[in-house]
Amino acid sequence: MSLIVIGASGHGKVIAEIAEYNGFSDIRFYDDKFPNLRNIGKWQVEGTVAEYLANQELHSLTVVAIGNNGVRERIQSKLPLVCDPLIHPRAIISPSVAIGKGSVVMAGAVVNADCKIGDGVIINTGAIVDHDCVIENFAHISPQVALAGAVKVGCSSWVGIGACVKQSIVIGQCAIVGAGGVVVKNVADSTTVVGNPATLLVK
């Protein structure tokens, strides 16, 4: 099977390896660093993102391997063929979980009963998403994050590495939880919280 990966980076390499575990053997990259960048690991970079989007004949199943939530959403929204979720074989996913198109679940992640994971979501290495959580489209749950039960993470929000979130907390849209943050109160849209307990970062 063939897969196009948008974004030739370390994150892209991780996703390409997960894709191989999922049965993809022909994996090619597109990235705006082309033509200066022609290879990423063992894979070829074949052109820019704009070139790929403009040439309908090139279109194959595609995953966007870009960590920036807004950029990932913008590109995925233009793709006619977005791949089904890519899940590492060493992730643990409850059979009652729903996961949207273009989402990726990395090694060691745990997603428990009745969670709902949107489109274009990243559940990164070793993250724990406990029962009944809702992760909306294009959010990023970083490595070693722990979400207790019934947490909601809004669209395009980013929960930083090692953060912990108390049960039933709501994190709004386009919000950021800083690395190692301990979230015990709801987080408003488009805000950044940091620390233990996590408090609003005033810029």
Automatic annotation (TrEMBL):
Signal peptide positions (record): none
Limits of the PglD N-terminal domain: 3-79
Keyword entries, A-Z: Transferase
UniProt-annotated binding residues for acetyl-CoA: 140, 161
Residue numbers marked as site, Increases basicity of active site His: 132
Binding site for substrate: 9-11, 67
Active site: 131 (proton acceptor)
One MF term in the entry's GO annotations: transferase activity
Stated family: Belongs to the transferase hexapeptide repeat family.
Cited PANTHER family: ACETYLTRANSFERASE, UDP-N-ACETYLBACILLOSAMINE N-ACETYLTRANSFERASE
The protein, known as: Acetyltransferase
